[in-house]
Design goal:
Its cofactor is Co(2+). The chain has 255 residues and is α/β, with parallel strands linked by helices. It contains eight helices and eleven strands.
């Protein structure tokens, strides 16, 4: 495991490359262990989140949200289903961002972070963060660990990076192979329970989620009086640690 000095050196090196946090935030001693959020804190809000992109259904999900005056949050990988630097993937990431939806980290290659060493955890984190900054200029304030798995090492690494960790309190079960009817019934049951808020897990890579379950969920949630907002809005926080001008593609944009 890294010493404190080595960890600080890594942190400072990363910030110098990505160039996003202020100097006063770059000290390891001021980085507490990351907070973990599993539910929204603002009443009558719903955060619809979508994991595992950028993928082909990003456009349709955004269009469905936009048509309803809703916002979503996209937890993207760097090299999972697609390489984030592929021309089509870059276009999808920009489309999501430019339409006012939130981007967040789902790490680089969707590995179980609890099985990795300290430096490999950082590698999984910074590579996708760097990609998002290059493509959009936005440095994410939130990270969702693949499979929802985390330990103190993951929380410490996220804390050093200035990020919060996000899980969920509702699962549409689309990644588990749930049918459309099952996912819709799960939404219906959750809404009927009248929770103060909902932090919903969905997947950008599931066709039926994009084209059938999402329109159903949007209609039912709004009819029940919920406001569909970004994760940051449902927590009353900022979506990004900072935003700078995006970069121009060069030879380093590879997976």
């Amino acid at each position: 495991m890294f010493s404190k000095l080595a960890a600080l050196t890594l942190s400072l090196w990363f910030w110098s490359v990505v160039a996003v946090p202020t100097a006063e935030d770059s000290s390891l001693e001021r980085r507490a262990r990351a907070s973990v959020y599993s539910k929204c804190t603002v009443a009558k809000t719903v955060a619809l989140t979508f994991d595992d992109g950028p993928y082909v259904y990003a456009y349709d999900i955004v269009k469905a949200l936009d048509a309803a005056g809703a916002k979503g949050t996209f937890f993207v990988n760097g090299n999972n289903y697609r390489c984030i630097y592929d021309e089509d993937s870059v276009k999808r990431v920009k489309y999501v961002y430019n339409h006012g939806h939130q981007l967040a980290s789902h790490t680089w290659a969707h590995k179980d972070l609890t099985t990795l060493s300290w430096d490999n955890i950082h590698d999984e984190m910074w590579r996708v963060e760097q990609a998002l900054v290059r493509i959009t200029g936005a440095y994410p304030a939130f990270m969702r660990p693949p499979y929802g798995n985390y330990n103190n090492l993951v929380l410490d690494a996220s804390g050093i990076r200035g990020q919060s960790v996000v899980i969920w309190d509702f699962d549409s079960e689309d990644s588990l192979g749930a049918s459309v009817a099952t996912s819709e019934n799960l939404y219906k049951s959750r809404i009927s329970a009248k929770p103060s808020s909902i932090l919903a897990l969905n997947h950008e890579t599931v066709e039926t989620t994009a084209h059938q379950v999402l329109p159903y969920a949007i209609q039912r949630l709004q009819a029940a009086g919920y406001k569909l907002v970004t994760l940051a809005e449902c927590l009353g926080k900022k979506p990004y640690q900072s935003v700078v001008a995006p970069s121009t593609r060069d030879s380093s944009w590879v997976c």
